[in-house]
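WP5 quarterly update. Target: Pyruvate:ferredoxin (Flavodoxin) oxidoreductase. Source organism: Clostridium perfringens. Length: 145 aa.
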Amino acid sequence: VESVVKIEGPADWKNAADEAKEDRNDIPDFIKNIVEPINAQKGFDLPVSAFDGMEDGTFMAGTAAYEKRGIAINVPEWQQDKCIQCNQCAYVCPHAVIRPFLLNENEKENAPEAMKIVPAKALKTEEPTFYTIGVTPLDCTGCGN
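Structure tokens (predicted):
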């Protein structure tokens, strides 16, 4: 107890509210009415009737596409100067957070300015080919692979 240090936070944090989310029409009812409340720790508030048609525990497939939780404390960062372009990082990532891409000259020129892009190694093509790694932090769970 002697090493515990009290940290004062801003007083307005006591009444902090979540930012309002924009209404999206492309989200299935299952996601809006069941998955989102469960992920918001409000699953116990769901009525039994919300699960009509799912009495056997069956859930809709593909729900991970709508679950952008952003829970990782540490997110992978591509270090292009050390990368040998083997794609093993993408292979071991269980949530498809790390994704390799091959780009042609046109795609490279139209890519965001901040995107790290290097020439592709060990790929023989007539046109120049480029390599990049995309990382989606909102999908990452920070497993450390």
